[in-house]
Amino acid sequence: MAIVNKNSQPFKPYARLMNIIGDQLITDKKVAVIEVVKNCYDADAENVQVRFFNMNNYGKTYLTEKEQPYIEIEDDGDGMSLKTITDIWLRPATPSKLDKKKQKLNKTNKGRIIQGEKGIGRFAIHKLGEKIELFTKAAGDEEIKLEMDFTEFNPEKADLFNQAPSEYKLLEEVHNSWYVNNPPEEIKNEKGTLIRIYNLRENWKENDFEELYKSIQRLIPPIDENAEKLGVNFKQDFSIQVYKNGDIYSSEEVTTFKDVIERAQFTMIGTVSKEGDLTFEYKSTSPVRNFEREINLLSKEQLAKNNYMSYAIERGFKDKHIPTCGTFSFTFYAFDLSKPDKTILNKDIERFIKDNFVFVLRDGVRVYPYGEKGIDWLNLDKLRATYRAGQFISYNDLTGFVYISQGGNPLLRDSTNRQGIMDIDGALDDFKNLVTAVTEIFNTEIKIDKNKLEIKRNTAFKDSNEIVVKSFNTLKSSLEKIDNRDVLEKANKFLDTVQKHNAVMKDRMETVEDLAGLGMAVEKASHDALTLLAKMRSNVKDFKVKAKNQDYKNGDLIELLNELDENLNFVYDEMQVIQPLFKNQRKSIKDVSVYETIEKVVKYFRRDLNGKIDVKIQKDNDIILKTNTGLVLQILINLIDNAIYWVNKNESKQKQITIKINSKNNSLTIADSGPGIREDVAPLIFNEFFSLKSDGRGLGLYIVKEILLRINGEIFVVQEEKERLLSGANFIVKFNKEQ
Predict the structure, then answer these.
(1) Is the peptide bond before 183 cis (omega within 30 degrees of 0)?
(2) Torsions phi, psi for 65 (to 5 deg)
(3) Distances (CA, A) of 360 to 277, 370, 371, 412, 431
């Protein structure tokens, strides 16, 4: 085939491309202002003024230039020479800043890390308005004035600004005029830049000014001593002021991050290395607790050893890859807004915390939109709703900062529209998962302290109960001395009513505990039964097809029936175990063999144990209890279920559970080779609703403790090394002789 013609041609875009990019590349006008301010930062400015004029005139037609709304952004930075204007500023996507970064010349004269790199930040101006005047002056140079009219770039919008429409032009046909001014027209100081923007694209309402003001205040991080401990130290040498119609604009917001940092109930600061090593310090003010710790977030064994679980790590690092996001530091602050401490929190601070989530700062400058109100970029509330609420801290209770850098996190780059970070090679996903994992650990420690506080409150309540009873007895004695039978009779009736009420409440609590325990047992049994029934149903369906076609042998039928018999026996055994847990069976008191009950429960868990966990039952003799079988079953089901869970969390160790009966002192020890129980957590594990399991309800060990109290027994954690049967959790159940 012969070529009849051949040529080449460069792209010749229409000028309206500039408007399309300006309007759609930067999607938010407030972000556009911030982008221009960031350019001031890169220019080593110390002072920036963002000024709004004639905002009430927006939408009015046939106004003079000075009457229409316009914006000015002025800085005292380095300014630009004519060569910079012509060779860099008027050439979008210039690689000048990127080249400096590649050559490791990415610092300004003041030592600031250059924020821009794509050479498209100037499109933010296009987002704000159609007509621009730019005045700039570099030190020792004359003032340069640049005029740009984007209505020429896009004629279809000319009529919006009372201008006659013109024809569509190619980009190369539209020229921007520049002038060299001497003396300077606007820049009276040695250096600086002023950008004046007319023909505004959007109206600015009061709420927009409020949000812009807050965004500008959060552009540069506050002074934080905790960040300085981590080596994160930014100069506070960049001031931004907003003016509206000649007056300095300020928000009604009086609370600052300094207030939050000083009053935080819970604080966690630290660093995560590129390999996933977490080094952190945790502090609680109520109750007072402070410690430092180092663990590898990617090591399930290290997490489990400290009684930590991380859904984010299990989900995000299933393939056990090394994170690609790089190292980062963080300072997190949290409050218990469900039970606010009025000595710490007021309405202003509470509102501030809810309005400010976790911010991301790169080399001391904020990355948008992270931290904005309503931007739950870690999906904490979604995880609380879909996975398990107790595993994650509430989005409303947490605020703070994550610190990254261009050098330490090269793959965490801003998206072109400045609305977040791009996900390059999975780096953003890794970053989010690691930050979420840190918040999970933070949440675990907060739960521990909340439970310690709850114990103090409950103790105080019990003490107050005793005081009430003592006071009543004192009153009763006094009344007896007075010999007023009528008053004494009424007092006795009151005491009798209180005692009856307490007895009813105690009975109801026992019923609730029984039902909760039954529900947990039925949940497991039904899960196993449904799994087997689904398998049986599938096998029967397959065999029906063969039977219809008479395509089977007698051996196939026998094999199917044997499998059905085996699975039905398993389901029957499961139901037999949970049958004594039902309320109508609870009234039966008889001699219960602890050894036989252990064997039943081990058989109940055989799908979790056989071939997976080595179970040893040791005894010198059996223990016979005069009680209800269901109560003993419930105790053992909860303890062995707990042991199975934690043994499976320690992947590197041999999986073992040892159950030892000591008939001499009427005790039972259940030990496992899991990660064990932290010393500071041990006093909390028998509290209702306290759990460090990723899917736990915090009821199992609480129910065990309460049932043992009913049958005159007790349970405690073995802490002494010499008394432990295995390296993990060791529980001793003590049965007193009289049940």
Answers:
(1) yes
(2) -60, -35
(3) 20, 6, 7, 11, 11
Per-residue b or e along 184-206, where b marks 16 or more CB atoms closer than 10 Å to that residue's CB: bebbeeebbbbbbbbbbbeebee
Burial 664-677 (b: 16+ CB within 10 A, else e): eebbbbbbbbbbbb
- pLDDT band for position 164 (50/70/90)? very low
Q: Are 213 and 248 in contact (CB under 8 A)?
A: no
Element (H, E) at 145: strand 143-149
Nearest to 125 by CA among 227, 32, 259, 13: 32
Task: Quickly count: other Cβ atoms within 10 Å of residue 610's Cβ.
Answer: 11
* Residue 73 DSSP code: E
- Residue position matching structure tokens 């009061």: 206
Which residue type, as a one-letter code, is found at position 495? L
Residue range 540-560, pLDDT digits in tens: 777 787 788 877 778 777 877
One DSSP character per residue, 240-263 reads EEEEETTEE---S----HHHHHHH
Residue 548, Cβ density class (10 Å: 0-12 exposed, 13-18 middle, ≥19 buried) = exposed
Convert the pLDDT of each residue in 83-113 to its tens digit. 999 988 888 777 655 555 555 557 888 888 8
- Using a 10 angstrom Cβ sphere, with 0-12 exposed, 13-18 middle and 19 or more buried, the burial of residue 333 is buried
- Please say if the pLDDT value at position 683 is more than 50: yes
Of 501 and 216, the structure prediction assigns the larger pLDDT to 216
Tell me if residue 487 falls in helix, strand or coil.
helix
**DSSP code per residue over 529-598:** HHHHHHHHHHHHHHHHHHHHTT---HHHHHHHHHHHHHHHHHHHHHHHHHGGGSGGGTT--EEEEHHHHH
| Cβ atoms of residues 265 and 335 within 8 Å | yes
Q: How confident is the model at residue 677 (pLDDT cuts 50, 70, 90)?
A: confident
Contacts of 699 (CB under 8 A, 6+ apart): 516, 517, 520, 688, 689
With a cut of 50, say whether residue 518 has pLDDT above it.
yes
Angstrom distance (rounded) from CA 730 to CA 412: 45
Chain-centroid distance of CA 447 in Å reads 15
The dihedral through the CA atoms of 471, 477, 478, 483 has a sign that is positive
Cross-strand partners of 284: 266, 289
DSSP E strands, 394-468: 398-404
- Name the maximum alpha-carbon separation found in the chain: 129
Higher pLDDT, 313 or 514: 313
pLDDT on residue 463: 47
**For the segment 12-42, what is each residue's pLDDT rounded down to a tens digit?**
888 777 777 767 777 788 888 988 998 899 9
Q: What is the dihedral of CA 19, 25, 31, 37, to 10 degrees?
A: -70
- Residues 192 and 77 sit within 8 Å (Cβ to Cβ): yes
- Which of 348-352, 393-397, 507-511, 624-628 has maximum average pLDDT? 393-397
Cβ atoms within 10 Å, residue 290: 10
